[in-house]
Amino acid sequence: DTGVSQDPRHKITKRGQNVTFRCDPISEHNRLYWYRQTLGQGPEFLTYFQNEAQLEKSRLLSDRFSAERPKGSFSTLEIQRTEQGDSAMYLCASRTDRVHTEAFFGQGTRLTVV
Amino acid sequence: AQSVTQPDIHITVSEGASLELRCNYSYGATPYLFWYVQSPGQGLQLLLKYFSGDTLVQGIKGFEAEFKRSQSSFNLRKPSVHWSDAAEYFCAVGARLTDSWGKLQFGAGTQVVVTP
Fold first, then answer.
1. B57 touches chain A (CB under 8 A)
2. pLDDT tier at A2 (50, 70, 90 boundaries)?
3. Which of A4, B15, B44, B65 is 20 to 30 A from A34 via CA?
4. pLDDT digits over A91-108, tens only?
């Protein structure tokens, strides 16, 4: 399977715990995006990388959130001290630098904070 | 402020009937335009995209969309729906001129229910 891969698919955690999600983009894609989708809403942009450089962060990304892409390949999104409001689907997408190309999405990680 | 509006939260359509989903955007310049579909608990699959050129765009699964600059709209259509088309549909826009154009802004989605 050469699509965008996210792990885990589901995560249940207690409030206050830290969680980390992983995204493996399509191998030749140097741009990687994280989105958050809450129930009944469209995805909202969180942050994106070009290779290993994090180029933009949304104001939605509080200081409890951090994302990395250390070698320009896979990326991790960590949430510290989780809150119930963090419960959402976290989506990763990737694309190439070529113009007129679309982003391909992974199947997401569903986070439930109890 | 930039925005993407999908006026219909929920649409019910009979199998075999036609479907049209509306999308309006407010943007400083004509953005890149996309329609994605999401099945329950799944990620997003691209149906079609508009970058430039012909304003009637053909996509996968028999879908098409028409870009109307004067109306700032990009409505999605399908002549005859199948039960497998039941899903949530998202319109999305990406800023054309910036380096971060791949960053997408999504509408709230339209849930499509297909009845026998």
1. no
2. confident
3. B65
4. 999 998 887 788 899 999
pLDDT of A60 > 90? The answer is no
The residue-averaged pLDDT of A78-82 equals 97
Phi and psi at A32, nearest 5°, equal -135, 135
- Chain A hits for B92, Cβ within 8 Å: 42
A97 touches chain B (CB under 8 A): no
Q: Alpha carbon B59 to chain centroid distance?
A: 11
A42, B103: Cβ pair inside 8 Å? no
Gyration radius of chain A's alpha carbons = 13
CB contact under 8 A, A48 and B102: yes
Q: Are B82 and B114 in contact (CB under 8 A)?
A: yes
Do B41 and A110 lie within an 8 Å CB cutoff?
yes
Would the CB atoms of A110 and B49 count as touching at under 8 Å? Answer: no
pLDDT tens figures, B31-81: 889 999 999 878 899 999 998 889 999 999 999 999 999 999 999 999 999
- Backbone φ/ψ region at A84: left (φ over 0), alpha (ψ -120 to 50), beta: alpha
Other beta carbons less than 10 A from residue B24's beta carbon: 17
Cα–Cα nearest to A45, from A29, A65, A30? A65
Residue found under tokens 């499509």: B112
